[in-house]
Amino acid sequence: MVSDPPRAPSRGPRASRSESRLDELREEAARRGAVEGGGVRAVGSPLPQDVATVGYYGHPVVKPPVWTWEVPLYFFVGGLAGMAAVIGLAAYAARQSPLLMLDALRLAALGAVISPLLLILDLGRPSRFLNMLRVFKHRSPMSVGVWTLVLFDGAALAGWALLEWFDRVTFWLGPDASRFALKLALLFAAVLGAVLATYTGVLLGATAIPAWASHRALLPFHFGLAGLGSAAAVLELMGHRLPALWLIGTAVAGTETCIGFWVELRRGGIADRVLHRGLAAWTLRVAGFLAGPAALVLRLEGPTTAAAICFLLGALISRYGWVAAGRASARDAEAALAG
Amino acid sequence: MPGNAARARRTVGFFTDPTLCIGCKACEVACKEWNQLPDDGFTWLGTSYDQTGQLGGSTWRHVKFVEADTARGAQLAGPMVGGDGAEDPFGWIFLSDVCKHCEEAGCLEACPTGSIVRTEVGSVFVQDDVCNGCGYCVVSCPFGVIDRRPKPQPGAGGAFKCTFCYDRQADGLTPACAKVCPTGSILFGPLDELHVQAEGRLATLRERGYDDAQIYDPRDTSVQGIHAFFLLLGEPERYGLPPSPKAPTAHLPVAWAAAAWTSMLLLAGTIAAFQLW
Q1: Which of B256-277 are b and which e, b meaning 16 or more Cβ less than 10 Å from the residue's Cβ?
Q2: Whole-model pTM?
Q3: Among A5, A172, A231, B7, which is most exposed with the fewest C-beta within 10 angstroms?
Q4: Which residues does residue B186 pair with via DSSP β-bridges, in sequence order?
Q5: Contact flag B248-A207 (C-beta cutoff 8 Å)
Q6: What distance in Å separates the CA atoms of residue A86 and residue A81, rounded to the nearest whole number?
Q7: Mean pLDDT confidence for A20-26
Q8: Chain A: nearest CA to B132, how far in angstroms?
Q9: Residue B157: left (phi > 0), alpha (psi -120 to 50), or beta?
Q10: Is residue B253 less than 8 Å (CB to CB) from chain A?
């Protein structure tokens, strides 16, 4: 009788008993200095790790933003809606395109509905959104921004409703009163809209996050400009091909090109190095390319539709890029310690 | 702690002295137990005896284990002498970190709901029943203290940090961490008295040859001083403390000026574009 070849020990109930599992554990231990295992915990002594040269074992000094996808999208939508109201006022003042004015106010009103929803969705406790309206704190950009948004919502929705049903309003209020109401609503929507599009830059700039704070003067300008370009681009996609919109689109794309070069060439030291390397930096570079040179060249040489889409993509990605840069910057202990 | 500071409306503080700390973490345990905070997990982080990592929504005291090795850099705890009389190049020091209760508090200023307030003892306090979890305080703290508590922890979604044991202070009791500290490394008391004590301790340490001893209380920065201050051996960076922290409110004038100029420029520019063309 031929004896059985020596058998490998039974694998037992735990599938993890294998040489590759041991290799995996060894790698994890080498990499992390600790091992997370089923029911096993290293006790008795700490596993030393190479001492980081920066700070306390290289641990982050400031906390990264807890915001999720809604907030960068809100920056985009709010900026677009706010600047659409600015275009609405400009079209009204020029008295040249009532249809453009109506579409601009429609955009503003739509953004006025979507923006608060995005903001509420991001809250840790959405049911308490109204708590933001129990106080006004001028030293809190979040507080100023929320109040701006609420007032803008009122003005934009009023302006849109007045325009949409102007005949009926005139019938009820008379021509003078209805025209005055429209003017007032458009003016308020435009001024509040401009603040809505720029305050988000203050919101990021006035924080403890090094990369944001070091660009506190750029961000409001950058975001406001992107908002204006986005509003013009959407109006163009809706079929409005006015020279004024083309001029705005060209000027904005040109300025965004300059901003892109400026951010790239300005070496703000340790504080903004996350803008020069890593995923966030490349996100911002792609966004800057789309909203800057690409949109500009397409506008001058190619179809306006392509230029508009290109700019919108760039403006949207840029907001995500800046929030990602904030996250990366918060992880950079050296930047926070250099302060 | 003499008398009831809350009733007397007297500004109180913590003075944390790492040269007296033995790294027992009793302050962490007392804080967790008194304030009913979820644990941080019990895995070693590979950073000395630190199992806590960082301050956060459920971690309001954090004992840092700062190791120093002459082969690598500055000696923090002074030369250690081993059993055989030979000098051991290894030194370490423990620091129980906590919310600094800043004079100009970034979190308090940033809070849009008015949930974060200054109490009658000068501390910075989060009213959990008001906080709506917007998360703006999280990025506004120059020390990375406050954080939003994730699911499934109790109170998830809200921002939490050290309360300075406001509930205990209201009853004239010492905060839990200071009460359990076995070596007097965490002192609690009227802020002005603590500063006098700290100066005395600093002089003693200097006399004993700790030339790099210093008080960490960034009064000359926009933070304008902290109510929970520290004595340090060596540079603050080694403890993960920014040497010149900035209150984010210091950035407001420049940022708002940029927003105002941009708003005016874009309004005027857009109107001009439509007028010209």
Answers
A1: bebbeebbeebbebbbebbeee
A2: 0.88
A3: A5
A4: B16
A5: yes
A6: 9
A7: 82
A8: 5
A9: left
A10: no
